[in-house]
Amino acid sequence: MDELAYCSAVDLASMIRSKKVSPVEVAAATLDRVKRSQPALNAFITIAEEEAMAAAREAERAVMSGAAPGPLHGVPFSVKDLVPTAGIRTTFGSLIFKDNVPTRDATAVARLKRAGAVLIGKTTTPEFGQQSLTEAPLFGRTRNAWSAERTSGGSSGGAAVAVAAGLGPIAVATDGGGSTRIPASCNGVVGFKQSLGFVPQEYAQDGFGNISYVTPMTRIVLDTALMLQVMAGPDPADPLTAGRAAPDFLAAARDESDLEGVRIAWRPRLGNSAVAADVLAACEAAMKTFSALGAAVSEHRGEIENPERLWYVINSAYRRAQYGDRVRDHRAIMCPTFRRQFDSAQNYSAADLYEAIFARTRLFRQVQSWFETCDVVAMPTLSRTALPIDQDFFGPIEIDGVPVPNLRAAWYPYTMPFNLTGNPAVSLPCGFDSAGLPIGIQLVGRCGADVLLLKCAAAFERARPWAERRPSLPELDGE
Q1: pLDDT tens per residue, range 283-322
Q2: Model pTM greater than 0.90?
Q3: CA-wise closest residue to 118 among 69, 173, 52
Q4: What is the set of domains in the chain, with CATH numbers?
Q5: Contact indicator for 447, 423 with CB cutoff of 8 Å
Q6: Which of 99, 102, 224, 385 would suit a FRET pair with 458, their CA atoms being 20 to 30 Å apart?
């Protein structure tokens, strides 16, 4: 059963449908693996053993009775602890909400359950998802799947580590500035942020200006497509999804034709000055693969305004409105990093906020102009591999031994812009650095062109498969 831990969701669902494995056996083995992993990895806040086993027994009864199974029937999945789950606590990584139990599932979660997936637990997130390093007073730190000395990234660090370490093949993550793609790159898995409006976030307080996305986190591209196929589609409570019919994500990922006629433009920097040499080398090798697959590869030099400040103003204004009373009433038990970020934004005015909103519109128009001469823009996901696990969020980061200030602007300038513009973006594993840590390449597409991005991602995966390489986890898999 431990070997099945690294089985894809697509294959696992097929084996369950054909009665080669039992949903109860799969759930029990996954829960056992999660519990054994906790002392080493700490990827879960809540393990929903009782609920998962009940759902697995029901899935087994359905299989044995001959009922038509859903596409994810019996497949274990986890949910980042920012996303509401009925009857299972949702803490937001905060001591304030350590006993919070929602009465309703988020729409994306409900759709996965209706497709037959079995929820096994809630994965770690920094408090309110407001860091790219997954740590919080509620649970401590979540380490990288490949190294105990490195961060898992964030804020969906638990989701990425769970998928990378075989603690379920698929996970629900969120992405408000790179929070899916950053940890996906750090842990060598697939992190897909779909176009704005495809997957509902009906519980968002700002339904119109939202920059956060509920996303899939998987080991392979086909599982990403399967999750999107299930989760996407309009919801009457999310205005951004209105009239946004979902395309056939699965067909795109299964399309085995070459990339002839697809124009992919390579962009090594996005407003940043420093990129690690091993990251550039791995990404440039990946571009040669795309060329060999038939794509027309070129250099990209489209205009871009550095969006770090405007993202920070918009995000900070939202969080101050959302959590201002919580900081006032519970400051002593909150994450010091969250408090410091919260305090640093207190002098922004309403005019500052609207200037940032105007700048967001300019950024959107700049990015859409890129696709007049190309179909996909490729770039590193991060400027370097996973940071040290004790990285100071407010200190400089090191890139090839040189300190570079401003972690947000220096480490993930490539991810934030596309939360603001709504373009689809996917981080794919493309190699390892000299320390054996994963490197990610990011592909960005036109708004709404998620199927083309999936086709390119799947073609790259077939040419350069990564899922068979697994992190060394003697605590789980032996030496």
Answers
A1: 999 999 999 999 999 999 888 878 999 999 999 999 999 9
A2: yes
A3: 52
A4: 3-310+337-477 (3.90.1300.10)
A5: yes
A6: 385
